[in-house]
């Protein structure tokens, strides 16, 4: 649990920091969406409050996660596929996760 908490803290710091390059922030957000956790809702809220994100893919991803809020996001069946951004909608569940975990 300590390792997971440390990962969440590090990834959250990258996502929130406005001085981090946009592509690094986007990748850190993808990791944060996989890790989820109790602080993920606060992360989404903080991201949507950042004015410099207006019109960026990171803001769009955060807003999409907020809209998905009613869907169950726990468990491997709902994890995002790492190839989804190239071949499918970035919010599509991973077919492998669905096959093995429900």
Topology, pairings included?
Blueprint: H1 2-16, H2 22-35, H3 40-48, H4 57-67, H5 84-87, H6 95-101
Helix pairs in contact: 1-2, 2-4, 3-4
What would your notes on this structure say?
This protein is mainly α and 102 residues long. It folds into 2 domains: 1-70, no CATH class; 71-102, no CATH class. 59% of the residues lie in helices and 0% in strands. The chain is globular. Mean pLDDT is 75; it is low at 70-102.
- Low-pLDDT runs of 5+ residues are 70-102
**Which strand-content bin applies to the residues?**
under 5%
Q: How many structural units, i.e. domains?
A: 2
What structural category do the secondary elements indicate?
mainly alpha
User: Would you tell me the overall average pLDDT?
Assistant: 75
For the sheet with most strands, the description reads: none
Label the overall shape. Answer: globular
Entry summary:
This protein has 102 residues and is mainly α. The protein contains six helices and no strands.
Core attributes:
102 residues, single chain, 2 domains, disordered C terminus, mainly alpha
């Amino acid at each position: 649990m300590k390792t997971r908490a440390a990962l969440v803290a590090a990834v959250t710091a990258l996502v929130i920091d406005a001085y981090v390059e946009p592509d690094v922030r986007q990748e850190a957000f993808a990791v944060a969406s996989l890790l989820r956790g109790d602080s993920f809702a606060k992360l989404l809220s903080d991201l949507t409050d950042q004015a410099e994100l207006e019109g960026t893919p990171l803001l769009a991803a955060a807003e999409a996660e907020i809209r998905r809020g009613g869907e169950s996001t726990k468990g491997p069946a709902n994890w995002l596929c790492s190839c989804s951004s190239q071949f499918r909608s970035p919010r599509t569940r991973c077919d492998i996760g669905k096959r093995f975990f429900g």
